[in-house]
Design goal:
CATH class: Alpha Beta
Number of domains: 1
Helix content: 40-55%
CATH superfamily: P-loop containing nucleotide triphosphate hydrolases
Oligomer: single chain
Order of helices and strands: HEEHHEHE
């Protein structure tokens, strides 16, 4: 995972001119439920989950890179990412 606040530095380090970037941002309640449902995982604090969600939601990134809608099951998410990528919406031009 690369947060949007590190995207420019990460992209520059790759040596690529362009790359595709997507930030998955389900509703905060979906994130909290997933964290609470994890087995054998030491991170389980709902308040920290909400804070992280808010950090991502407030990040300075073009909305075309942010996937916020869907049923959030893996197959639908893969399909949505594929469609966005095919349409060119995820393309990130690496600053020179």
């Amino acid at each position: 995972m690369v947060g949007p606040w590190y995207l420019a530095a990460f992209a520059a380090a790759t040596g690529l001119r362009t790359l595709d970037y997507v930030m998955l941002l389900p509703p905060a309640e979906v994130c909290v439920a997933r964290v609470e449902a994890r087995q054998a995982h030491r991170f389980s604090d709902p308040s920290v989950t909400r804070k992280m969600h808010d950090d991502f939601a407030q990040a300075a990134i073009s909305s075309r890179h942010v996937l916020t809608e869907g049923r959030w099951d893996p197959a639908d998410t893969v399909e949505a990412i594929g469609a966005a990528r095919e349409a060119g919406r995820l393309r990130y031009e690496v600053p020179s």
